[in-house]
């Protein structure tokens, strides 16, 4: 199996991505590192532990990472995913406390102890932890095989500002540092994640399948529907990272040169295609029904 680290701010869609990874034998999850984003760091860390407890995977360690962006004051918590960050869905308490070491310290040591290029990082939140690794521990960062990150909007409108997507907006300097670094980066922007949509029928099919994992994901998506009324379907942003790692053939990926807007305002974190920017592999298209089908098959067999 492929050695992976999940860097995340759970988050309803993060939770679904983590459960998908746990249901995928292709992945050997070495650890989960947490970051503030959808909600504060204490809660994202707690949620990671609760998800692992639910899945019976208390053996996977959780390392708490950055509480605030690199150089800006943290945004006011938006509580988009409810006060507990996961839409009020019931989960057990963690079976194992979070590790005492900081995520950055563990990640650096872990990368240095593994063959160069053998570890992939699946990034589901603001890029603060990974930027700090790049800036403070370049010796370790350069050993990452690849980062696959949910973030940005290329031709689509943003979901925070007209062009800004939440993860990059939440820490634009971090996004800029990761994009500019030599670590191979694949980005999964809103252009793709808005095309992998759960409908109410999809939720019903998951519930009806009877498996505990599918039922949990159905509850998570259901809570997502309850957060906004009159929506026919909801995008599954973060699970697209896992889906792209598992089935790249379902995605249309192009190399683009990108810069990140580090100005103030609503479009902080916006991406611009610019010949002087850094090369990034960007997913620009996806076979949405096939991606959803893969997600459902993984969840239902567990
Ligand atoms: C991203 O923002 C967060 O709210 C989601 O978890 C996802 O990572 C989508 O813009
Ligand atoms: Ca997220």
UniProtKB/TrEMBL annotation:
Gene3D superfamilies, A to Z: Ribonucleoside hydrolase-like
SUPFAM superfamilies with a match to the protein in the record: Nucleoside hydrolase
GO molecular function, one term: hydrolase activity
Coiled coil stretches, renumbered: none
Transmembrane region(s): none
Ranges where the Inosine/uridine-preferring nucleoside hydrolase domain occurs: 4-291
Full protein name: Nucleoside hydrolase
